[in-house]
Design goal:
There is one protein chain. Helices cover 15% and strands 24% of the residues. By secondary structure, it is of the alpha+beta class. The chain is globular, with a radius of gyration of 15 Å. It starts with 20 loop residues before the first strand and ends with a helix.
C-alpha cells in the first residue's frame, strides 16, 4: 500500500511592520487563497492589481502561498506598456 503525500501547509511569513506595496496575503478574507500584489492606497487601505481591497493590518507576508494569476497578468501588461509619461 502506498501513502499519498499531503501538500505542504501554507505558511505566511508574518504580519508587516511597515507596508507600502508588494506581494501579500489577506489572511482574514480567505486563508486558502493566493498572494496578491497590493499597494497602499490610503491610511489603512490597500488594493491589489486584481481589484481586491483589504485593510493594511490584515496583510501578511506571502510565505509559501502561490501568486494570484490575475495579478501576474496585470503586472505583465503594465511592464510591457512602460512607465507613464
Amino acid at each position: 500500500m502506498t501513502q499519498t503525500q499531503k501538500p505542504a501547509p501554507r505558511i505566511s511569513s508574518g504580519p508587516f511592520e511597515h507596508f507600502l506595496k508588494g506581494w501579500a496575503v489577506n489572511l482574514m478574507a480567505d486563508p486558502g487563497q493566493s498572494a496578491h500584489w497590493f499597494s497602499r492606497g490610503g491610511a489603512d487601505a490597500a488594493r491589489a492589481l486584481c481589484s481586491q481591497d483589504a485593510p493594511v493590518r490584515w496583510l501578511y507576508g506571502p510565505g509559501n502561498y502561490g501568486r494570484c494569476q490575475n495579478c501576474i497578468k496585470v503586472m505583465k501588461r503594465r511592464i510591457e506598456r512602460g512607465p507613464p509619461l
